[in-house]
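Standup notes
- HV: blocked on the assembly model, inputs below
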Amino acid sequence: MVTPVLECKDVSISYYTRAGEIPAVYDFNLTVNPGEAVGIVGESGCGKSTVALAIMQYMGKNGAITSGEIKFLGRNMRDMTEEELRKIRGSQIAMVYQEPMASLNPSMLVRDQLIEVPMIHEGIDEAAATKRAIEILDAVRLPDPQRILASYPHQLSGGQQQRVVIAMALLSNPKLLLLDEPTTALDVTVEAGVVELIKDIAKRFGTSMIYISHNLGLILETCDRICVMYSGQSVELGSVKQVFDHMRHPYTRGLFSSIPLPGTDRFSRPLVPIPGQLPLPRDRPTGCTFGPRCTFFEAGRCDLPQHMAPVSGDAGHQVRCVRYDEIDWAAHRPKGLTSEPMKPGKVVLQVRDMKKYYEIRDNSLAAMISGKGVRYVKANEKIDFEAREAETVAIVGESGCGKSTFAKVLMGLEGSTSGEVLINGVDVGKLPVRQRPAGLISSLQIVFQNPFETLNPSHSVGSQIGRVLKKFGVAETRDEIEKKTYELLDLVKLPREFASRKPRQLSGGQKQRIGIARAFGGNASVVVADEPVSALDVSVQAAVTGLLTDIQREKRTTMVFISHDLSVVRYLADRIVVMYLGRIMEQGTTDQVFSPPYHPYTEALLSAVPIADTSIKKKHIVLKGELPSPMNPPPGCPFQTRCPRKIGAICEEELPPVQELAPGHKIMCHLPAEELKAMEPVFQMGSRAEVEAAPSPRKASKAPAKKTVARKAKKPQR
Amino acid sequence: MTDIAASPPRASRLWRIFKSVGLLRESRIGMFGIFLVLFWIFMAVFADLLPIRDPLAQSGPDLLKPWFSIGADGGNYWLGTDDKGRDILSRLIFGSRLVLFWSAFATIVAYAVGMMMGVAAGYRGGWWDEIISFIGNIFLAFPQMVLYIVILSQLGPQSPVGELLAAQGFDAVWVKGLTIVLAVMFATAPQVARIVRGIVLDLKTRDYVAAAEVRGESPLYIMIVELLPNARGPLIVDACLRLGYVTIAIAALGFLGLGLPPPDPDWGKMISEVRGYGAQASNAMIWPAIAISSLVLGLNLLADALREISLRD
Amino acid sequence: MLILAARRIASMILIMLVISVLLFVFFEGDKLNLAMRVLGPYSPPEGRLQWLAENGYNRPLLVRYFAWLGGFLTGNWNESAQFSAPVYDFLLPRLKNTAILGGLVFLFTVSIALVLGVLSGISEASLRDRSISVLSILTTSIPEFASATFLAAIFVFWLNWLPGSSSFSNGFSWVELVLPVLTLVIYNFGYYTRMTRASMAEVMSSQYVRTAVLKGLPYKRVVLRHALRNALIAPFTVMILQLNYLLSGVVVTEVFFAYDGYGKALYDAAMFGDVYLILAGAMIAVVVAVMSQFISDIGYTYLNPRIRFA
């Protein structure tokens, strides 16, 4: 029998705070064999990152492993001296972190940060170490390694930084590689490249991996086995196939049912939210931690401590649920977020040829000499679309595509440079919010992205809703305001007591509900939703999205839904606008955008979304390079630097024409219409058997669980 | 679906204050700070009621007596006497009134001005920021004491400002005091403004500020209702420290002879009055030095404990 | 970098010019008052008018300003009423004395603060950290005139080890420097220490230090190569920026120990109402402060590659 690379036995980890000991992880078991990739998946606070740091024996001042064994190649790491641990760290076990920028030393050259690893661990000299560094940078597919070596971290893009961190981890050819959400801070198309690299590394170097993520799709792409964690415990463990195709724990089941898959839509596979919310560590129930949210909870059994137990007849598959064998999943028909297609009304929002340029003053010497002291960032170029009553239009794109800028212009926080933005026929493009009449202001409202910033922490929830009601003239007297406030709380399905609470007493999902109540407080005719769920936990997202669309449909409001995630959008949008570097690349109805003909960028974007479903076959397109900076967009077609279908010089020189391939379906591309129409669909539904028979089953799928954007969520660029 | 968070019952204001004192209690050092500050506040408030001598009464035979000595009248001089035979203990206690009153007054004025400048500069940005920051930088370019000397040497009782204040019916002490407050304001408000500006620059990128903007709130409303309440944590800490600095500055002015006019007992002046007597005056000099140090120490420890608490949340 | 420096110099000159205008108007704007100050409160009014006429004070304010500014730049700082000597000749040796005092104080303050701050910051919340923190808070709570009092009481009056006056009456003497330097160091090092500590503690808990530890680097290397440089950027710049706070304490300390320096000269001038001396003294202080700000800005840019290669 082979010695496992890593063996965690009954590990418990606690943090010590003023309030006492808080168990972060308990009763944790995991074995990683040589060459194996194991995924740990779970939502925030489930303890997955704590596990990684415990394996590194790096618990900080207030954390400690309280019991159990962590064996590395058969030796218990808890018995090792600090010096022994130091020799293992970086050479035998290496780690890749979530935020590459913060993980690299800002005042040291990349070269110095790389070469010290082999110099310390292997005692080789500087020249040999530099040579090794160049080789490894080449291996992580960074072009021009010499230039990278001579750079400071801030001079590299996010994707390049993460590749440098990966290179650093691989320098001493470790036995075990820990990856803690390595792509969460990256854009989807850049993420796809890094994921491909990670898969390739596993193959080439035979390194064992632990891949930590909240995203089931990524785990499916990269791992052989998976461990699902919930609230400090593992709840299900097995091979990827076992867990994805025959999941046994109600939480795993709930997680899968609540995430959108780009292969399906709201009509064919409605989302099922998990009720309730994650318990805080100190409020964990004594029995099954998932109990309070579980439909199959049975008093007397589920409120006793639960243990991992093998699933009978399925070797290697374990589950922490006494009732796993009794639940009849086939008969379980939970109420999904179904909805009938709405009939859109008159045009409410019309954007015609809108442009927004920012002036940037460049103070560098080079700019001064070349006389380019002032440059323009073309945040929005020629934006053209319309939205009707009761319709949801989604604007989709990666960072820097101009979607947030557009929202700001719409809300009057920025003025447009030229063009028209008509709301019910009134041009608001150049009308700052302070000059807008009260009626206009209340008819155009927004739901913000970051739940931690959307409410003012100093005021009670009720007073913040009340202020909106008063400001919009919905209610005047105290009693009236109170009554209306309660009605709004009812609308977003929160208890009325919340009116007197301070925002810090609310969870992220609850805060977003208040944000929704506020936006609909004044009978808005257009509501902009700026990534309203991207910072929420996966299991809460579906419920909040569902609520938002329900209210919007009931009130026949026009919604502009801004997102970076195509799979979410498919579930709620009637029409989709795809943006890249300030321009609209493609727009059309949801069906039109999700099926051929595609714009090559849309095609790549669709293919980059990881899918958590083994039955979906996906075309595999990995874009080369990084997202260009909006400050310095390429000439011609903005996408030409990365386009896999680039024709030639014409793409570099001329802006492509907008082709209307079907009524309302517009694509901006040089490719002839016939060629576009001949494209294959990105997703193909296949039966599971089919996929298993395919030579490389892993290649076939992907999943989005919306990116829980790195902790605080991206702040809108101002 | 309703998700009800397990959360504590609605916190009344009073309860919250109790809670923060409770938090402070965890820090022994913070409690010591509070004790020192409260001690001097108590002395200042109840100076009249305490069984001590008249701080202004001079006694010819009892010059520069050491501590625990008995005076010509048979009474005790707990902390000794100064060069005019006045009781040091009662001068310290009555002096605390002066010190606390003028320091607090000056700090409040400087804070009010500084906060307005800082919020306006931070939130409005652009030209507002340029101009306010420039004005601030002018005063920050002076070493504080130089600024005090410049202002106080020029704004004496005969200066237009002095005459204006006298015409309002202020007596000599108040004229001098208000001039000092003015000087402190010029020196301190720009520092406060700089801190507030920094906090506001950070806070104004929050979505709740954007939310207020998109419902059409006025800049004044946003500054006062949305921004300032959220800046209070760091500002309370800073105000404690700042009060300490101002106390030191005003006492230093008293020491230099630029402070309040005699015969009122000002701690700084108490030192300089007896300095000429050399070794004999050691006792008379040390007590006011201890007094000012203990008050400032109290404020600094309090600020430190408050900062610890605010970081913990 | 060059552009940045040029830009900074321009704004530096602008602020100094504005301050010079303000100071000039503040002191010389009211010329009758000025004459009274210079000639004394008991001078006859006709004498004042005559003095004004003779010294060109009847020219327009703007002309007088430029004349004064030209004079200031060329070392003609008018005549001190108190000492009946040109202010320039009077002030220069005193500035030298203050430079000696200030230089020593800065040297000691910075070295103590960096050592204590780093020691404190690398082991946050340890006993050592707490002791250093309490010590720093304690010493920053004792203003210069108070610590001078304590030091004098102990070393001068009680132990008789050191002289109580530092007037250099028998020529330059290191012994006489001890107490003024000690006084200023005691008050100032605590603030710098706490700043260094905060910066070091923040860096030690940063993700890139975690990366360095998990790379398997020895602890010494983590601290010296990875943490220290980043941790010292902020304290370094602030320390230079705070030079003018040092100058505040210098006034009090020099007065206390009768140290014949810039601060005492300014104090004497304030007591006497020696307008020209105060004006020149204030201008010098501002020039020093603005220069230190410039050095601090440039230093920050140089130390921080994120700005250098932006």
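- HV (later): unblocked. Residues 1-11 of chain B have pLDDT under 50 and may be disordered. Chain B touches chain C through 47 residues (CB under 8 Å).
- Next: hand off to the docking folks.
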